[in-house]
Design goal:
523 residues; mainly alpha; three-stranded antiparallel β-sheet; two-stranded parallel ribbon; L-Aspartase-like
Length: 523
């Protein structure tokens, strides 16, 4: 579907994270700026001059990849570009999500707008028109090795610009590209020298997925601090270990931010206050220190934050890049081959992020499990069951968590070390960044589900601590769950719908918003 939002302006500078999300997920329209048009025109003049010359120039008057040694005569160059796109649109498998396709189209347009690729203005404007009309080419799961660009995914998008292949229209219907273009009042492009190559030679798919994953993980790491606070509170843990002077001794910025969040979230907790210092019977609390999964939450969540901060730096550099081969140096009037299409920088951090997702989920599952074991839950009923033995409580919810965490550990195995040669050994080392991005998307979904089950379980445990009162922040999260129809403790009931409801509250940011409505924005 199309959006009534203002158009995102695509110029010679980088696209922001926020604008990418607007276009990819919210369906915002897109427009080229005037400086982008001028840059594109200057680069095209260079390509036209070289195309008319006698000296072979890669990407303009030669074949591609291992076939680059063949000089292509002028009368066959339009066919060369068409053949390139058609042959490279060789993807297979399930359709890739609409938001991913829109992100990679936007990022390809952003590179075209730098004036480094040599396409015509009309070709770039057609990409903007498809995005604005909500026309989404069908891209398949498999086909990119993350080097020479995300070739097959981008080729399927280029094919749609030619009026070929299949697309999803604004309503989501599967239709031939030619029909969708006609319905939107758009004419397909007749590709000329260099354009086919420029449309498919970028790391746009993996980069788009990285930006979206980092956006999601920013929310999820703050939600992980909320879940951890609820678990510390519900398991009668101490908040003293999160004090800023203790974090300063090991000055990792992510750790300090996570610990500060935990301090704020646990402030004014009646549950924590109930076992801090001397007890009513005159004894001291005999809990010397909490288990690692509680006590070390800031260290794990903080390391995750610092790792993702590095990934954001890499993503920012990549957003400011013009990825194509060959690249047009309009200032010098020449076109040069390069290796900037190699996806290694993006692939590495995609793998790092999958490791982060797996480990944050792992510590979350361990915190959850402690609620369910009578020997470790400090007075809570086994499995938080209403009538243990008759009822199973949250026993199998933890099984679900464990199954997801196990899957996340497998997804944390890096794709970026698994190079496989292609193109008759011309492309003999590739990044597999697209594969790293695809598994990261599954990792983000898995982390969302694991955190939701921890929040669900901790909320039930805190209710069972009554009449002790949770902190205002965690109490707001519990109230959110109850207002959403997720009931508190009681006899066993169909648990899956409650888990899914809590998953959506985490994914949408509602859990984070509930806590922040009380204590302000978390770090």
């Amino acid at each position: 579907m199309t959006s009534a939002a203002p158009a995102v302006q695509v110029g010679v500078g980088p696209i922001s994270f926020e604008d990418l999300i607007k276009v990819a997920r919210d369906g915002a329209p897109v427009a080229l700026t005037e400086d982008a048009r001028l840059a594109i025109e200057r680069a095209r003049e260079v390509v036209d001059r070289l195309a008319g010359g006698e000296t072979p120039t890669y990407g303009i008057s030669t074949g591609f990849g291992a076939l680059a040694t063949r000089h292509i005569p002028t009368e066959m160059r339009a066919q060369l570009q068409k053949s390139l796109v058609r042959s490279h649109a060789a993807g297979s498998g399930p359709e890739v999500e609409r938001e991913v396709v829109r992100a990679l189209m936007l990022l390809r347009l952003s590179t075209l707008a730098t004036g480094r690729t040599g396409v015509r203005v009309g070709t770039a404007e057609l990409i903007a028109a498809l995005l604005s009309a909500g026309i989404t080419p069908v891209v398949h799961e498999y086909g990119s090795l993350g080097c020479s660009g995300d070739l097959a995914p981008l080729a399927h998008c280029a094919l749609a610009l030619m009026g070929e292949g299949m697309v999803r229209d604004a309503a989501g219907a599967l239709v031939p590209a030619a029909d969708a273009l006609a319905a939107a009042g758009l004419a397909p492009v007749e590709l000329v020298a260099k354009e086919g190559l420029a449309l498919i030679n970028g790391t746009d798919g993996m980069l788009g997925m990285l930006v979206m994953a980092l956006t999601d993980l920013d929310l999820l790491l703050r939600t992980a601090d909320i879940a951890a606070a609820m678990s510390v509170e519900g398991q009668l843990g101490t908040d003293r270990v999160f004090a800023p002077e203790l974090q300063a001794i090991r000055p990792h910025p992510g750790q300090a931010a996570s610990a500060a969040n935990l301090v704020a979230l646990l402030r004014d907790s009646g549950v924590v206050a109930s076992h801090r210092g001397p007890q009513e019977d005159g004894t001291q609390c005999n809990r010397v220190q909490d288990a690692y999964s509680l006590r070390c939450s800031p260290q794990v969540h903080g390391a995750a934050r610092d790792t993702l901060d590095h990934a954001r730096v890499v993503a920012g550099r990549e957003l400011a890049s013009a990825v194509d081969n060959p690249v047009v140096l309009a200032e010098e009037g020449r076109v040069e081959s390069n290796g900037n299409f190699h996806g290694a920088p993006v692939a590495y951090v995609l793998d790092f992020a999958a490791i982060v997702a797996a480990d944050v989920a792992s510590i979350s599952e361990r915190r959850t499990d402690r609620f369910l074991d009578k020997a470790r839950s400090h007075g809570l009923p086994p499995f938080l069951a209403d009538d243990p033995g008759v009822d199973s409580g949250h026993m199998i919810a933890q099984y679900t968590q464990a199954a997801i965490v196990s899957e996340l550990k497998r997804l944390a195995a890096p794709a970026s070390v698994d190079s496989i040669p292609s193109s008759a050994m011309q492309e003999d080392h590739v990044s597999m960044g697209w594969s790293a991005a695809r598994k990261l998307r599954r990792s983000v979904d898995g982390l969302t589900r694991v955190l939701a089950i921890e929040v669900l379980t901790a909320a039930r445990a805190l209710d069972l601590r009554a009449p002790l009162q949770p902190s205002p922040a965690t109490g707001a999260v519990i109230a959110l769950l109850r207002d959403a129809g997720i009931a508190g403790p009681g006899p066993d009931r169909h648990l899956s719908p409650e888990i899914e409801a809590c998953v959506e509250l985490v994914r949408s940011g509602a859990v984070l918003a509930a806590a922040q409505s009380v204590i302000g924005e978390l770090q």
